[in-house]
């Protein structure tokens, strides 16, 4: 019975970079024959790891403002390339940015405060223009 379980074709390989017993770095062993990654697989891994940058307060605010601009129809939807308007969603995003400004008062650097102020002003003006244009 034990012999049957051993010949199931499974091989467990520990890929951890550090030893669980000593905590020291393991030496890197080459992958077994046939397990090499293709160049496209390597590129895909590098691209997916590079796609995410460090999230800072400024990048977070810029992301929310980009979404608001999309909802205002100022930026085309990246999925289909067509602009659309969703004013309730735009208003909610603008309100979230206003809430962030209020809740972070006194905790931001000068450039972050200026960025948030400018973005809020621009988005609010674009929102008013969009509502008037209906």
Summarize the SSE layout with pairings.
Layout: H1 2-6, H2 39-50, H3 57-71, H4 87-103, H5 110-132
Structure characterization notes:
This protein has 134 residues and is mainly alpha-helical. It has a domain of 76 residues. It is 54% helix and 0% strand. Helix 3 runs parallel beside helix 5. The longest helix is centred in the C-terminal third of the chain and has 23 residues. The chain is elongated, with a radius of gyration of 25 Å.
Radius of gyration: 25 Å
Helix and strand element order:
HHHHH
Question: What is the overall pLDDT average?
Answer: 81
Provide a count of the helices. Answer: 5
Helix content: 40-55%
Quickly give the structural class. Answer: mainly alpha
Binned strand content: under 5%
- Described by its quaternary structure, the protein is single chain
What is the overall shape? Answer: elongated
End-to-end Cα distance: 76 Å
What's the main sheet like?
A: none
Flag low-confidence runs.
none
Count of distinct strands: 0
Keywords:
134 residues; mainly alpha; 5 helices; 54% helix; 0% strand; elongated
What is this structure, in a nutshell?
The chain has a domain of 76 residues. 54% of the residues lie in helices and 0% in strands. With 134 residues, the chain is mainly α.
